[in-house]
Amino acid sequence: xxxxxxxxxxxxxxxxxxxxxxxxxxxxxxxxxxxxxxxxxxxxxxxxxxxxxxxxxxxxxxxxxxxxxxxxxxxxxxxxxxxxxxxxxxxxxxxxxxxxxxxxxxxxxxxxxxxxxxxxxxxxxxxxxxxxx
Length: 133
Hints:
Blueprint: H1 3-26, H2 37-47, E1 55-58, E2 64-69, E3 72-79, E4 82-89, H3 90-94, E5 97-99, E6 102-106, E7 114-118, H4 125-132
Antiparallel strand pairs: 1-2, 2-3, 3-4, 5-6, 6-7
């Protein structure tokens, strides 16, 4: 084995190490910005095109949102480094349990079984007023 072989081996090992480091760096999850009303509306409109949003309630911590669209509830919640959106009947969203400032909405989905969203109250006061009238 001559010197050229060892030089080629060292350069190849260095190139592989650089590629492995680049692949590891690329997979690092970057946390997204917390949701605000405008971003939640944008994501819901992107996920459910053509649906009109009657009202949107964004989580206090910015990690989710619930929107009313006719007889449906559109649920947006954080999962991993992104968000998932699901639609459920509005009555199911109203019946969701609310404890310690968090609403737990059963989505009946294997990939996202429950959406836990921090809201100040549930059901929303404006909806309760409409139901009472």
